[in-house]
Amino acid sequence: MWSCLLFIITFYGINCEPETVRDNFDYFSYGNEESILKNLDLHAPKDEIVLRPQEVKDWPQQSLNVGQITAVSINSLGQPVIFHRAERVWDESTFNESNVYQNLDKGPIIEDTILVLDPHTGSVLHSWGAYAFYMPHGLTVDHHDNVWVTDVAKHQVFKFTPSNHKYPSLTIGEAFTAGYPYRRRVLLCMPTSVAVATTGEIFVADGYCNNQILKFNAAGTLLFAIPSFSDTLTLNLPHSVTLLEQLDIVCVADRENMRIVCPKAGLKSYIKMLEPATIIEDPTLGRVFAVASHGDIIYAVNGPTSQNIAIRGFTVNALYGNILDTWEPSTGFSNPHSIAVTKNGSHLYVTEIGPNKIWKFELTDVYDKK
Q1: What is the pTM of this model?
Q2: Cys-Cys with 150: which of 138, 163, 181, 345 at CB 3.0–4.6 Å?
Q3: Is 350 a known ligand-binding residue?
Q4: 88-102 confidence digits (pLDDT tens)
């Protein structure tokens, strides 16, 4: 029975738009933001520790001279690892109506696209990824320092081990072939993000066209899709994923639905996957571009949505689905695209694709605990 349930997949279409900074006036207005915020309880009880991201000034200490920074993750040494597009830009001519990449004649990006940064100074410690990618999007460093990346132009996910950054040890999808995943032939369509469990299971946000989360075993065999064919849940451009293993949920930046969705991940129990997903919705969220997590806390960033919705970060309680805090750097965000939190929960990083920038924040206790 489960084999039937797990492999019958419903797919939804989406009109993919370029990842340039979009006009903020083409989305509906929720009304005056100040009046909305007055009616929201954005604070946790006094006995709950809420760590607020505080901007680390003058970091990085020198300009990185990179393109659009589409992703950031943290390795086991606490070093931020970023994925950037160099001179490559996604615009209206990058893909056709069938989601086929139109700039093959340009070849792969000739510069190193993956940079490992010093967490103290922001300087580049080492780099790799030249002549490998066409349109970088997602990057995740797993618990064993394997690096997982998504290339939306190639419609593929790649796993690189720490000892071999030249040839991937695992590839999901077929190069430059957009399609739907099946048991015997797994095709992806502009995958956006990857999350990897400590047990090896792989969660892929598939992505701009198929609007689903795919779960694979450690060998890359497709197990099932979220939502399933019988699920009433629908996603509209799952742009980022994060795993909260202790809660057995995978949380998704459901971008065009302007919410965070947390269905069961099926790491501990397949039966509980039938339970409804936790849905985090709020008038101030806007288009959620990225999510990261530490413990039971989700950190998220939105992007340009409308005049009345501020671009900023959110701290969310994953257990109860309530916003605990909002935050931003002193000069504000413009177009954030990814977020990552260190393993020890002391710092987080946010990257933008216009301007091409990475921010570092220190997570500090906002309440006096005396």
Answers
A1: 0.87
A2: 138
A3: no
A4: 999 999 999 999 999
